[in-house]
User: Fold these one by one.
Assistant:
Number 1:
Amino acid sequence: MMKAEVIEVKGMSCEHCVKAVEDALAPLGARGEVDLAAGTVKVTYNESSVSLEAIREAIEEQGYETSA
Ligand SMILES: [Cu+2]
């Protein structure tokens, strides 16, 4: 079942950041839609194959801070 969740991500400032976040999510089978102005990422993922926690970790590994 696909689920969509909006998470706050601090530190994204440019198109490079957008790509870094999107590319970090792709291997998890998740899709991220970054809203730079809002500092959020709308993540669409399959909750039976990946957890929101794993998604947040993948984003944080790129150097950004997430909050629920
Ligand atoms: Cu950037």
Number 2:
Amino acid sequence: MRSTGWVNDQPMCVTCGVQYPYGIDLGVCPICADERQYVGYDGQLWTTSAQVGDNHVNVFRQEVRGLWGIGTEPHFAIGQRALIVPGEGGNLLWDCVSLVDDATVDRINELGGLAAIAISHPHYYSAMHEWSEAFGGIPIHLHADDEQWIPVRDGAVRLWSGDSFEALPGRTLLNPRIHFAGGAIVHWDGLDGRGALCTGDILQVVADRRWVGFMYSYPNLIPEHPETVRRAVKLLAEYDFDVLYGAWWDKVVDGDAKAAVSRSAERYLAHLGL
Ligand SMILES: [Zn+2]
């Protein structure tokens, strides 16, 4: 058996897919009660990752050679896919999904296992604690400014603070502060040195994939504050990246991504009259 403390029958919110510890006074999922999310139309519903595993599987697909994505099918909760970002010192799991079954662990071990987990923001915390345990208690790097949303501060959780933190060699977490105060992205020095960002929906790849969006809330359509967007662009100016991977399959800015972020910010600010 792979699991010790975090197991697959703990309460998990159906709407956001985040898993909570036993015994917590649940009521409504705090992440969904926040104005950036919503409680499902049938009211608060709970499941477990074991139940999710009864009728879902994780699928693996390469975004580009060497960069694997993991998504749960059919769609569950928010529906993001995670990425396995490779490099010296082992693989980084970027963002997370709500299902981690034995088949998933076996497949990832074939790809070299995991050395650490890092997550962009609370909506994707999903089953991060169970994932950590499934890979031997690996660290989960979360930004300290989102501490209030962490379901439990177990030994795996490592808080980082400030603008940047190198989680593993060549994989630097950055804090643009978009969507959440602790909203994080990862800069990867891969793609033969071209560099890439994995952004979750902190920088959201939109339908026209030459552009990204900046929202405080996506489901409730609340725009991000312009000063936050300006600050984020300034932070990213120090980093080179040619490709940008968003939170879902195929949501990829496939070249010239740094310029795409700049022109997207300019367009955004212009539409706000700034
Ligand atoms: Zn929730």
